[in-house]
Amino acid sequence: xxxIKYADRITHPAHDNAEVYEYPMRNKTxxxxxxxxxxxxxxxxxxxxxxxxxxxxxxxxxxxxCGHTVSQGDTFNIPA
Length: 80
Description:
There is one protein chain. By secondary structure, this protein is mostly beta strands. It is 0% helix and 46% strand. It has no helices and 7 strands. The chain is globular, with a radius of gyration of 13 Å. The model has no long low-confidence stretch (mean pLDDT 86).
């Protein structure tokens, strides 16, 4: 078991309309983060994570991710 405390999270510089908080784990193939998005991110192009896959859960709101509409309660995986 692994626990990452709130105080140990990493705050990343803002990506246009997103705040990103990462919870670093020993497992380098899976990344856990909380992202608060308030508009299109990035403003142009796309974000790519080369190191790990991301499992995402939409807490509130709705938007488009990789051409798919997601809304509150949806979960999706973005592979590395």
